[in-house]
Every structure is written in structure tokens, then in C-alpha cells.
Queue: 2 jobs
Job 1
Amino acid sequence: MENSTTPKLITIDRHINEEQDLHPEATGEFTFLLHDFTFAIRLIEREIRRAGLNDILGLTENINIHGETVKKLDQFAFEVIYRAMDHNGNLCVMACEEANGLMKIPEKYPKGKYVLVFDPLDGSSNIDVNITLGTIFGFYKRLDPTLRTDGTIEDVLQPGRKLVAAGYVLYGSSTVMVYTTGHGVNVFTYDPTVGEFLLTKKGLKMPEWNNQYSVNEGYYHKWDEKFRKYIDFIKTPSPDKKRPYSLRYVGTAVADVHRVLNYGGIFMYPGDKSHPQGKLRLLYEANPLSFVIEQAGGRATDGQTDILDIVPSSIHQKTPLFIGSKRNVDELMEFLNS
Ligand code: P6P
């Protein structure tokens, strides 16, 4: 179905202002929040485009909470977002992949009523080979919006259904920001010559189905039997030519999910014998991606529960993720529930 592209030239700042009418209670704070966030993204975008030109590639001595070596670009993205967002007085706390616990707002700055969760740079294993990277983000309102104190772990561990805005940035052949405030999905493409994100798709709706699937087949023998049966099924030729499905896998979740958002199909990162909860993080990866996909008419589940209904119990908890076109996810669920 043709998505409506907009003939008007609208920057993301102008769009955020216009969307503010959809959130009467968001008295400008929300606009400032997204404005500051997109400023951080512009700085990250510039650094990523230069990454091949300076010594930013390679490894830092830092190791993050998951025991993964943090590459300099990860560190840069993490620090830029934190420093761009810590003083505007609209956040009470942050949480992200690169920080062990809650990221407090410095004492000297006022606290606001929003919470930011983010993965500063998704796909870091692809940094050194110039393959697409992403940033994933979600904003919650704190549980008691009248408070002006530090946010708490309860303010952070909210189900994805409670997100007030979420989305991702894809640093690909061009840089796009895809986000939603619960009123449809909008896509902005970055024009580096003017330093602006311009609205390129409004109210994006994803295809109901497509014969493309995205999963790391290398783990086939570690998957449970029902999931293997589904994978075998979609690879078996059918008389109506709808099967076999085509496999597409970048290894950066944001890139794989963005392709599914636009073309349809399904992205999957299941649990397996050695990692029953899979690899992707619920709070700052699965939830924001699922919020976008659901807003575009798709579906996201952990194989039993809709991702957005899972109540997080810890900041870095993992979840199996099956996300994509509604009919593709429904087809998978028939096998998982068989
Ligand atoms: P695997 C990137 O490191 C990441 O966290 C996601 O962006 C991506 O979907 C996944 O890991 C890829 O993991 O096990 O297939 O290499």
C-alpha cells in the first residue's frame, strides 16, 4: 500500500511542535526533550560519517556490564546523549546499555517528569566494517509527574505500553529517524548540507505480510523444535510460490527491523539452549522497536506475550523477540503454540 509522503518541507523541530497539539499536557517540555535528543543524534551522525577517517575505530579499554568490549564510537554516542540530555530539566533519570545502573541527573541540574531509555549504538559489531548502525530510544513519563526529585528504578521499569514516544535512528546510506508518539509512525531523513531532519514519510503503515525472514540461521541447532519446524516450513517450496521465503540478515537489529517495517516480513531473535532469553534487551531495544512496529500495524511478541505488555524486572533483562508484519507473526505463533 502506497505510504503517504508529504509534499511539505517540514523539519523535525517543526513537526514536534505541531505534534505538541496531540499532547496538550506536554507543555513544551516534550518538544525541548526531543529537540535536545535530535541535537545529540546530529553529533553522533557526524562522528559515524567520520569514523573511518580517524582513529575512533578500534577498542577502548572499557568493558560494559555485559562483558562486551566497548568500542570508542559506542562510548562517544553514550556520552553525547547523556551530556545533551542531562541538563534540560525535563528528565528525572536515564538508563542505557552502556551504564550498569540508573544514570542519575547531576545534582546541579533540575529534574523533570520524563525518563529516557536508550541503546546509544546498536550493531557495534559492525562498526569496523562500515555496516549500518543504529540508535534506539524510548521516553516514559515518570510514575508521579508532580515530583521534581531523582527518578527511581520503578520509573524506569515500566512496560513498553506506557511509552510516550519511541523510535530509532538508522545510520545507513542516509540517516533516518523513525519515531512515534502513539499517533502513527513518521520518518525523517537527514540532510547533512543543512543539518536538518526532514519529514519524508507520515503515518507509515507496514505491509500485512511478506515472504522475507530475518534470523541468524547459524544457531539453527540450538533452537527449540517448534521454532525449527517453522523455519523448515518457510524454507519449503510451496505450489503457490509464496515459499521459500528469502533470508535477509544485517546483524544490526535496527537495520533488520527497518527493512521489515518498510517491506514487511519478520525479524526474529529467539532464545536457545544456551541463551533461553535470547540476546536483545527488553527495555531499550525490544520495547521501542515494538512500539514503532505496532503503531505501523505490525506485531511483536516474545513467543507468548506481546512485548509491550511485559513488565520489566531489571534494566538489562533480555527477551526473545519476534517482530514484524501481523500475518507473518501470526503464522509463526501457530507453530510455537502447536
Ligand atoms: P548475532 C548487534 O550486536 C545486536 O545487539 C543486534 O543489533 C543484532 O540484531 C544482534 O546483536 C545480532 O546478534 O548473535 O546474530 O550476531
Job 2
Amino acid sequence: MSTTTLHQYLQHYFGFTSFRPAQADIVQSLLARRDTLAILPTGGGKSLCYQLPALVQSGLTLVISPLIALMKDQVDALVANEIPATYLNSSLDDETYRERMRALLRGAYRLLYIAPERLTSSSFLNFLSKLNVTMCVVDEAHCISEWGHDFRPSYRTIAAALQTLPERPVIGAFTATATPQVQQDIMTFLQLEKPAIFVTGFDRPNLYFGVVRGAKKKDYVRMYVAAHRGEAGIIYCATRKAVDEVYHDLTRANVPCVRYHAGLSETVRTRAQNAFVRDKASVIVATNAFGMGIDKPDVRYVLHYQLPKSIEAYYQEAGRAGRDGAPAECILLYSGQDVRTQRFLIEQTEQETGVIDTAARDRLEEMEAYCQTNRCLRAQILQHFGATDTAPCGHCSQCETPTATCDVTGDARTVFKTVEEIKERYGIATVVRILRGALQAKDRAREFEYCRYYGARSGESERDLRREIEQYIADGYLYKRGAKYPLLALTVSGEEVLRGTQTVTMPIPQSPRRRGATALPKTHAAPRKDPLFTRLAAARKTLAEKRNVPPYVIFSDATLLEMCEKRPQTLNDMAQVSGVGPFKLINYAPVFLDLIQNHPEESL
Ligand code: ADP
Ligand code: MG
């Protein structure tokens, strides 16, 4: 299909003026009826990649989506653009369910959303075989893999179910999880045929990243939330107990907030989720049980009250901010105690299973290095996902206020030289043993005691040395080779240090006395101070309540902000705003236009 035609569809159905990276290519690939695996970050705009082809091509698109609680919102968002979509799940009463089945048989819908469990029913499969399903979309496809963090066995039944259809539909698989094992599992278990694979860059330029060290966390959270009143935010905690504490603390401060964790009943959780998605509560305090499949695009901040288990988990959770592309903040509150808690949890599991979980330990150390680095935070995250060209971003707490640092080139050389001497053939543990002069029997035969810095750091603890080495990895002097037993190797920067052409610095640890008085970052979230924005948002909420849909289904924050900026004076001007398609122009835009036209210009 020609690019011009594609853009016309984009404008017509979604009101957007341009595609985001990879969207157009993914759409084309599916339209060419090629199996497609798309890996885009959270907020990258995956839904549109299959919704658009679903509208253009003939037949029905079956969308498999993990969470029943969110299906209604997903479908409402489509219906708000006058796209004929529906869902079938256990939340429907019998009459509605049968009515929808009849409409599906008549061909009244272009998209049908279901949860994977439905595919295990033979009567449902029988029904599906009458529907002319031409495309099957697997959303959150990482659920198919045990390597991912949300394994759902029922995802494994999808391929067999599709085989029962008269004709195999083209398959599109979508996820934000980029690890190779997950990618392989998706291709294998969905039986993708010569899939086209799209992976975009993982940068989210509208997100500001910050690490706050040594703050009094409760005070910080209260201050932060007060400074961002009226904005939607998620506060992630590592434990249920912490969720309850933060929740009670905010409730006492009269913040409209809800909480979410696995210890609460299903009903309570669903209610909390709905209140948050529908802007009835601006803040949700939650464990990592909350978030998958939440499409709320206008989350303006994600605070991590405690350290997550890995960079992967952190980026996924933090990435739930700012899906609409408008500015948003991701702030992690760091304390050494949290690391000890997480390490304790790992050790506990290890004792139960009797197996040392080096992978979990490494992930935690990498996370810790993120919190302690004096380099660009964004660069550090993107490097984790394999990026090599990472200049400082200028839009994170490290770039804005670099931490005071000291020169540690001498220490670094002891490590790098050792790595060089043992020919990059051993992992962190061996290097640490050599430096501490604490060799094991198996090391003796290898003559490690002849290393130049053997025992040179014997006074230091194993843990401190490991942490130091992780920091060199995070800062790009060393890297790990191989997945199962990672070996330490020198990067070009590391080699330069050995040659004496580069120095190494590390942040000076904060003295405990200075703790507590941490200032909030200057705000990077969207400028909510405009009184017009407040009025438009209020109108959006009223409209949403009347139609029983989440407010973002009417217009996203990004769209309202653009209205504030451009101050459209006619419907024609309105049509130029991104997110205002023909249907929304007629049905929703007039109310907003009226508010803008009658908004008094600020008296300066
Ligand atoms: P993902 O599933 O990849 O996390 P979504 O499909 O939920 O992301 O999209 C995130 C947000 O981005 C949604 O609010 C969507 O409307 C918006 N969006 C998607 N594509 C575009 C585009 N081309 N232009 C502007 N906004 C877009
Ligand atoms: Mg999605």
C-alpha cells in the first residue's frame, strides 16, 4: 500500500499526523500477510500497528490480550474513533454475549478481543471457524515464555487453536520484552513462519530519569505528590507492607490515592485500577503486580519507592509514564537498605532451592550500579539493551547535576590489569579472589598468585569489590561475555585506562549527615500550570463519565496540551491537532473549541 494512503488512514481513524518509528513498516508487513514479530518499548504505539491493518484488510482480526479487566477500555478506545471492535469474555452476561456472537457472524466487527483461555474451549473454536479470521494478533506476547516475567501457560495453546481454523491467519506478535530467549520462545511457540522482525530503539526521549539518594523517602513522596497535584502517577514499592504504609501516609495527607497488590481481593484491585484509569484517584501505590496491559497514556510520573530487581523490570515499570509522548518523570528513591532487602530475598530463595542464583545476584548488582553511577542514567539503561552509541542525554538527574566524584584510576587499574593478565577468560568471582589473595584450590594450578596485583586489595570485602567491578561494567570500562558463565573483558575505554590515556572517577559516597534534605527535581512533567489545561481536562472528565469510558479515550494529555499551545479557533484548526480525527472532531471537539474560544487571555 502506498505511504500516502497509509497516512490517510492514520489521519482518518486515529487523527495522528505521523507514524512513530517502525509503525509504518510493521503495518506494511502485516498487510503483505507476513508473520511479524514487533518489539517496541512500552508506549511505542504497538496497538496501532495491528489496528490499522485490521481496518484496511478484509476479514476479522482476532486480538489475544492477557487481561480481561482491560479489554473494555481497549475496545472503548477504538469505538471512540468509530472503529467497529468488540470483545468476548466472562464479564459479559449471557444475553450480551450471544448478541455479540450474532453480530460477529454478520461481520459487524473488524476486531475481536479475547483472553487466551477462551481458545481452550472447543465450542468457541467452532464458532471462530465461522468468522473468517484473517489475522491473529498476540499482544504482550512475552507471556508465552517462561523467561519473561508474566508467564501464562494458556498462551502456549494459541498455535494449536489457530490450526483448527479453515485457513491459517497471518500472525502478529507484539511485546516490549527484548531478551533473545523470549524472542525465540515467541517464534517457536506461536509457530511463526519466516517472521519479519522489527526492533526499535528503546529510548523514550520524553521521559526524565532521576535517582534520589539518601532522602527521607516518606517526606520526599509527600512533597513530590503535592508538587504534582492533579497529575496521574504510579508509586511502585517492593513489598505489600511498603505499599500499605505509603498508601496510608498519602491518604492521611488527603491525596486521592488507591493501592494495588496481590494481597488484596480481585474486586478491590479491579476497583483500584478503574479509579486510577478513570482519573478518580490520581495516584496508585502498587507492587509490580500492577501495570501489565494498562494502556493509560497520561501517567505523568512513576516513582520507585524501593529498588526493583533488575534494570529490565525497572524500565518496564518506569516506562508506564508518558506513553502519550508528553513529558513525564521516572524517579527512583535509592537506599542501601533496599539492596540488602533484595539480596536477603534472593538468599532466602537460594536456601530453599539449594542453588545459588548468580543471575539474580548479577541483575541486582546491575540495578545497584544504576543507582550509584555518575554517568548519564539514560545511557546506562540503553546500554543494558545493547545500544553502543550513547552520548549523555542532558535530560536525567546525572546530566543535570553530576555527583561529586573522586579519581579511582589506581584501584581501577588493579582490576583491569588482572582481567588482562588472565586473558579475559574468567568471571568476576575469580578476579575478586585474585585481588583479595583468597585463592581456592582450583586456582593454584592456574598460577594466579603470579598476577601483578595478587592480594593487592586483601583488606577489602568481597562484596565491596564485586560492587566496584559492577560499577566499572556499568560505566563502560569492562563488559561481560557469554550468558551462562559471563567472563570479564576490557572495553576500549578499559584498555585506554591501562595505557594511561584515560582516568576513572566514581561518585563520592554521601555522608549520612547530609541525608534527608533532598530537593525535588525541577519539574519535567508537562506544564500543567496553564488554567486552560485544567478546564479542558475537566471537560474531558465530564464527557468521559457520561460515556462511561476512561478520560484518555476522549483525548490524551498530549492532545489537550497541543490545544493549549495552538489555541485553535475553528473546527478546521482543531482538525490539525494530533489526536483529533474526523469522528472525534464532530463528536468531542466542539465542547473543547468552545472553552478555548471563551478562555480569557491571561492578563500579564
Ligand atoms: P504500547 O502498546 O506500545 O505500549 P500503545 O499502543 O498503548 O503503546 O500506544 C501508546 C500511546 O501512544 C497511545 O495513547 C496511542 O494513542 C499513542 N500513539 C500511538 N501511535 C501514535 C502516533 N503515530 N502518533 C501519536 N500518538 C500515537
Ligand atoms: Mg500495548
